[in-house]
Amino acid sequence: MSNRLDALVQAVIQGRHRDAVAHAESLLSAGTDLYSIVEHGLSPALKALDVKCTSDEFNLLEIMLAGRAMMEVMDKVVAKHLDNDRPLIQKGTIILGTIKGDIHELGKHVVRIILSCAGYKVIDLGKDVEPVRFVEAAAEAKADYIFISGLISVIVPHVREVKADLKQRNLTIPVVAGGAALQQMTAEDLYVDYVARDAFDGLHYVQRMR
Question: Which ranges carry the B12-binding domain (predicted)?
Fold first, then answer.
């Protein structure tokens, strides 16, 4: 089984999504449960990509292709057979969206992939999302975190509204902000709990908070 898991890890890291799905299906057919495929196949690949992100080897296209391979395995193998297998342990629920005034989604998609593959349930609200919608969705889902994405500076006032709205409703849900424009500011400036430098930094934050 170890060789097959290693093959899955390498296929994901290299962004070979069809091979990754084939390896995962082969493991499943051989009796490997979904938990092992995620914990010993996808998780090591995620850690390897994390290392690349913190080194000179960082390549956005490479991360995107690997992320696609991970999601293909999650969607076509894990989700497909989840009802018939040992349930996966979810580490928490995260509300994610690009805030009002911004329609960029590429970075948000990367965040969704990484958080999902790390074991978090991610509710993606999409783009141009009203600040109050983040709060409503978090309350409805009893979410553990709110992640706000944004690439342009004009959205900053809207970002600040989220925490204020949470406070008015007596909700204490941590708010994480990220994206090109928001990375240049402090958590105090944005009235959030944390400003993530990149997708993995956001993941590390929620892992530290557990």
Answer: 91-210
Please count the residues of the chain: 210
Question: From CA 194, how far away is CA 49, in angstroms rounded?
Answer: 22
**Which CATH number applies to 2-84: 1.10.1240.10, 3.40.50.150, 2.120.10.30, 1.10.238.10?**
1.10.1240.10
d(CA 169, CA 8): 45
∠ CA 38-112-110, nearest 5°, is 100
Q: What is the mean pLDDT of each run of 10 residues along the chain (210 residues)?
A: 86 93 92 82 81 66 84 82 59 95 82 82 95 98 96 93 96 94 92 91 90
CA–CA gap between residue 150 and residue 129 (Å, rounded): 11
What pLDDT sits at residue 23? 94
CATH topology of domain 93-209: Rossmann fold (3.40.50)
CA distances from 26 to 20, 42, 186 (A): 10, 15, 47
Measured CA angle at 125 (ends 82, 184), to 5 deg: 115
Alpha-carbon separation of residue 15 from 74, 86, 129, 178 (angstroms): 14, 27, 30, 25
